Backbone:
């Protein structure tokens, strides 16, 4: 998974072994991995935790939502929201339905656990190409309207998520998003 992370985010520090071990310790059911059958190679993953949404500032950054990437703030007793901390697919395996399978696994988990929703911070991967002429809110409006395509947000919108808010400092050192993300939400239709 660390190798996949390095290919997906070549300019960012990858997940550490300690963080990934912590995810499995605190919430094994919320961690999903896609393995290529023929080679045993990891080609995708999703990392999640349960939070009590109202305990956080709506515009908090990724580090706060994930306890620095360790998920030690996982709250299965009081939390009603699955927080999607990460979904990634090896670039060589993208456009093969792996992301769709990971998102379906999350939706199935939310339904099984009786949680209200999935929320996540969707980094605006394409924003750097438009930042000189569009404010982040304008960029998001155009992506939602289908006038622009964002590699992350456009996919999530097709997966049934809706945009709730723009967050200015979600990932402060991300060169593609310039730090911007949007809070997205999928509501459990069973509740």
Residues:
């Amino acid at each position: 998974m660390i190798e996949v992370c390095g290919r997906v985010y070549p300019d960012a520090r990858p997940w550490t072994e300690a963080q990934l071990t912590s995810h499995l310790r605190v919430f094994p059911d919320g961690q999903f991995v896609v393995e290529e059958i023929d080679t045993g190679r990891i080609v995708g993953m999703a990392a999640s935790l349960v939070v009590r949404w109202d305990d956080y500032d709506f515009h908090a950054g990724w580090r706060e939502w994930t306890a620095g990437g360790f998920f030690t703030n996982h709250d299965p007793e009081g939390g009603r929201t699955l927080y999607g901390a990460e979904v990634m697919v090896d670039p060589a395996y993208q456009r093969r339905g792996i992301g769709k399978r990971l998102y379906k696994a999350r939706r199935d988990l939310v339904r099984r656990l009786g949680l209200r929703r999935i929320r996540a911070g969707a980094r605006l991967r394409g924003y750097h190409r438009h930042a000189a002429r569009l404010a982040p809110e304008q960029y998001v409006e155009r992506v939602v309207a289908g006038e622009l395509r964002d590699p992350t947000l456009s996919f999530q919108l097709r997966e049934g998520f809706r945009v709730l808010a723009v967050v200015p400092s979600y990932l402060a050192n991300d060169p593609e998003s310039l730090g911007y993300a949007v809070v997205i939400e999928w509501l459990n239709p069973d509740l």
In short: The mean pLDDT is 95. Residues 98-113 form the longest helix (16 residues). The two ends are 34 Å apart (CA to CA). The domain at 2-187 is CATH 3.40.630.30 (Aminopeptidase).
